Amino acid sequence: MLKKIYNFLAYLYSYFxxxxxxxxxxxxxQISNLHEKGYELIDVNGFINYKFIVTKKFVNKYMSKDLLxxxxxxxxxxxxxxxxxxxxxxxxxxxxxFSIDYAIIYETFPxxxxxxxxxxxxxxxxxxxxxxxxxxKLIMPIENDILEESGGIEVLEKSQKNxxxxxxxxxxxxxxxxxxxxLLFYPNICYHKARSPRETSRKQxxxxxxxxxxxxxxxxxAIKQKxxxxxxxxxxxxxxxxxxxx
Length: 246
Fold this sequence. Notes:
Blueprint: H1 2-24, H2 33-37, E1 39-43, E2 55-60, E3 63-67, H3 70-83, H4 86-94, E4 97-108, E5 136-141, E6 153-155, E7 173-174, E8 181-185, E9 192-194, E10 202-212, E11 216-218, H5 221-224, H6 233-236, E12 242-244
Parallel strand pairs: 4-11
Antiparallel strand pairs: 1-8, 2-3, 3-4, 4-10, 5-8, 5-10, 6-7, 6-9, 11-12
């Protein structure tokens, strides 16, 4: 019963704010794979120069986080969205500005066969229900390219969303990317999962982007990286302060 109530509230949230954002925030945009398929791998003019002092936090035996200081986190995000021009690229592709509310740098390790039926790092097919349909996630490799054996994220094209009862999906997108590429996708629309690396680990940054009147960074984003990703963003971040970026 509680699950049904949760799913219903998530459904109302995703559609209400989707229409709200389209009416109040959305401008003209370019038709691209992001619009047609729900995901797009894009080239960026540079990569993340990973020389931060970090605190290592193990979430479980197959996943760890690199926790950044508040200053390093904000500098990194400004570099990604301003210096690498992702702010303008994303706005041109969506017609929206975004609030950068959550970001983590994390490393995933190969899951042993007897543990693969359990949830370790979103390694089962799912959609992020309590988000707007306009919410984006951005993933970029850290330090090394994401290869086939790296176990990059797998994303189902949005046109196949109604096939969710069958987990034997075909023709999915498996992220293989160099360090100067980034994946954008709609987590509320596209089914996705994190694949297990075959031998070595995979390190990447994941950033949650929620539509906003202007581009901005959550001032508490360094604190939030220590915890699980917040749901129902407008509620979760309602009392937070922001730094606006131009």
